[in-house]
Design goal:
Helices cover about 50% and strands about 0% of the residues. By secondary structure, it is an all-alpha fold.
């Protein structure tokens, strides 16, 4: 099996994570289908606004919490 240095999840941790997702009935969708569930224009505006706020705060030496999209 080929290993990649940027991947550091052990097989046991991966199995545990997959079991959690299955047990909690998480569903996987393809990225191409994501637009049906997300307002892309709204998400882009929100991201740009968060980045702008972070840049202004950085200029003033302040730190803002990270935003999740």
């Amino acid at each position: 099996m080929e290993h990649h240095r940027w991947v550091n999840t052990t097989p046991a941790e991966f199995e545990k994570a997959m079991k959690y997702l299955k047990d909690n009935e998480y569903k996987v969708i393809a990225m191409r289908d994501l637009a049906a569930y997300v307002d892309v224009k709204k998400a882009i505006k929100k991201k740009n606004k968060a980045q702008s706020s972070s840049l202004h705060a950085a200029e003033k030496g302040k730190h803002l919490p990270k935003h999740e999209v």
